[in-house]
Specification:
CATH architecture of the largest domain in chain A: 3-Layer(aba) Sandwich
Oligomer: homodimer
Structural class of chain A: alpha/beta
CATH class of the largest domain in chain A: Alpha Beta
Radius of gyration of chain A: 27 Å
Strand content of chain A: 25-35%
């Protein structure tokens, strides 16, 4: 490791670009995922930025490398320890030494944000924290950059994936709170001690950060009233269905008469609300403002690779000046004949064997039928089906053959179907 | 107007900050909205950045100010003319003169993007274009910054609000294509000549831009195969419901064997797809990558103030260095007692007058009942209702009174309801 402050970048030779040294504090789920992800994307990042990121030091409680050593040898420090101390001290030390910092630590920012942001301004370094709220969902960047000039009225969020998973399972399966929590723990969506997730404290820290950015006013975690989901029953879910409502743990930060209000509590949402369809361990945030109407962003709220991706986006932003569209680094062929599932709508004579013959023609082109709806209309019938994915050229060939069958009336209608690919 | 290139900022005195001069090319829907929005936010922007944006020149076809004059007097040029020429020439001239450019012009970038991005790199200026795709939905910034290091597999989008409005109305009301188009025109969601919207060409330009950013390879509009919605029938909508599918005009840019495929066409989506619930004139884009799983962003895809907000976000980003969290500029009070609608769940004795008494107690606190579900359970009954918004303190007082009524069994259960506020 080198640590010459006058020479922030080491030269690695032109082909691979200058090196940008990243020090990791912490090597748990997120730190480990980052240590895996970053090298796999280093060539791409070097190609678009001319700078090659590399991990030059890792500090854990037990690996014998001190945090001071990692900080000294880095251009940027990724704080992935969590908790208030020693994370706060390390982040302050890194910034005082002129190093950029990226952190995923929501409690640190909800307690000590003003101190840390002031230190970043004082030392002229970047302190980025996309991963601290809603994982890879880019709400921090959007609030700080896209909407920095906007007059924001309200931020509403599902910012805890554990509770959203539990509530989704209770709604879908009628499971009790206890059973849904157990399932979440088995699937890795809840920790062995889920207290801070289910009681709303985790979400409260995130809402404090979002409120600070949205309203440009200091918000400490003690300003956020929170209530958890432990007391909800399957009964509430059943009645929610009768009333056409969905039950979520919702964080709200909004302008109200006399100031702002920041809260976390269970809430029913009407079906039309943009957060009502956010299910499972996903997070989502809606930002409202008169001029923009609203923006909603959603995605995985946790997970090692996902959170590490958010950290990596912050690292790249700290490395390079913004908003230059780099030269293209590759020249991919644009392919026109691709696979798709299809909806096929046929008007046919209503006589036996029609479906079998259509299915046979489809089969000759490699198309297999997934679902069928058939309706009689006097002498005629309507045959509507969905076929499994196949090349478009094959589907078009099958349609030509089907159009030529003597029982087919009019032109077959064909529309693509996008399969369920998000679980 | 001053145009001394050696003095990019005029000093306006400390309180209001340095001035940042913005030249507008075009003063239609978006330009007019920006000319209204920007001055209303200038104090806030000056407070957080120390720099005050001001519009120092406007060029229209008929106002007598030339584009060259506007460019000469600006630090940043907002190109809001649309079309290929003279927009392309003006943008090139502005960048050659060392001015940043913000544009909302998708056709310009889909045709001439590589030339323009190369010019921006050559002259060391920023060329930002958030408003060119999906209005205020921050997909450009997220692709260029948050996900610049990611290996993206697929981008899927509803990127034309006109067609999404038409398809939504056809699905909701059973309207024909022609009637839904007419309604869209009456509401201002479709232009008098809607050709480029309904035939998919507008969406194709946007997908070319998204594919370029996602895959880091040149994509020209002629690389994008497109198909419109003009041939869809209400019949397709009805069958879609039978098959539990939703019909949208979908743009797809994805890696396939041999390269990438970029297309726009109508497609059915299964209900679980993140774009299936995007209705009306909204736009939405889903980005998939193995490490991040997926991110979805949605919001208004058009509209003067919305598009102008996207332009304003780009302007501020061009003004200031990134990602410093500015000092707070205000100190808003955090209010704890706020209004909310409530779900109230009561176990009561099953006898006449119970609902009336509960409603009376609620009424005393100013709470009015919106909807009620009552179920008999032998001697007991369950009364579940939603009440219209009132202060939480008043609701809690009402609940205390209700808990004391002699026919109420057990503790009333109260959960907040978030009202439909998005139309």
């Amino acid at each position: 490791m080198t640590s010459d402050p006058a020479q922030p970048f080491r030269t690695e030779g032109e082909p691979s670009g200058r090196a940008f040294r990243i020090g990791l504090l912490g090597h748990g789920t997120v730190g480990g995922a980052l240590a895996e992800l970053l090298p796999s994307r280093a060539d791409h990042i070097a190609a678009i930025t001319g700078i090659r990121p590399e991990i030059t030091g890792v500090h854990t409680r037990s690996n014998g490398t001190t945090a001071a050593e990692v900080i000294a040898g880095a251009d940027l420090v990724a704080e992935l320890i969590g908790g208030l101390e020693p994370a706060r001290t390390y982040v302050l030390e890194a910034m005082a030494a002129g190093k950029h910092v990226v952190t995923a630590n929501k409690q640190l920012l909800a307690h000590h944000g003003e101190e840390l942001w002031a230190a970043a301004r004082e030392h002229g370094v970047q302190l980025r924290f996309e991963a601290a709220v809603a994982g890879v969902v880019p709400v921090i960047r959007v609030l700080q950059e896209s909407l920095s000039g906007a007059h924001i009225d309200r931020v509403t969020g599902i910012v805890n994936g554990t509770t959203n998973f539990i509530l989704t399972r209770m709604a879908e399966t009628g499971a009790t709170y206890a059973d849904a929590l157990q399932e979440a723990q088995q699937l890795g969506y809840a920790e062995a001690d889920p207290t801070d997730d289910v009681n709303g404290k985790d979400a409260a820290a995130k809402m404090a950060i979002l409120a600070r950015l949205a309203f440009d006013t200091p918000v400490h975690i003690t300003d956020v009233a929170y209530e958890g989901i432990e007391h909800l029953t399957g009964d509430d879910m059943a009645y929610a269905k009768d009333l056409d409502l969905g039950l979520k743990l919702i964080g709200t930060a909004e302008r109200v008469e006399g100031g702002i209000a920041v809260r976390v509590h269970p809430a029913f949402l009407y079906r039309g609300h943009p957060l009502a369809s956010v299910n499972g361990p996903y997070n989502a945030v809606t930002v409202e403002s008169e001029a923009i109407t609203e923006i909603t962003m959603s995605g995985p709220g946790a997970g090692g690779p996902q959170t590490a991706s958010a950290v990596m986006g912050d690292i790249i932003s700290a490395m390079i000046p913004p908003a230059s569209t780099p030269e293209t680094t590759q020249s991919l062929a644009v392919v026109k004949d691709v696979e798709s599932a299809f909806y096929v709508h046929l008007e046919v004579a209503d006589r036996p064997g029609v479906l079998a013959q259509v299915a046979q023609v489809l089969g000759l082109q490699g198309a297999s039928v997934k679902s069928v709806v058939q309706k009689g209309l006097g002498e005629n019938a309507r045959l509507v089906m969905v076929v499994h994915p196949l090349l478009e050229s094959k589907m078009l060939a099958a349609v030509e053959l089907i159009a030529g069958l003597d029982f087919v009336r009019g032109r077959p209608r064909v529309i693509r179907v996008i399969e369920e690919q998000f679980v």
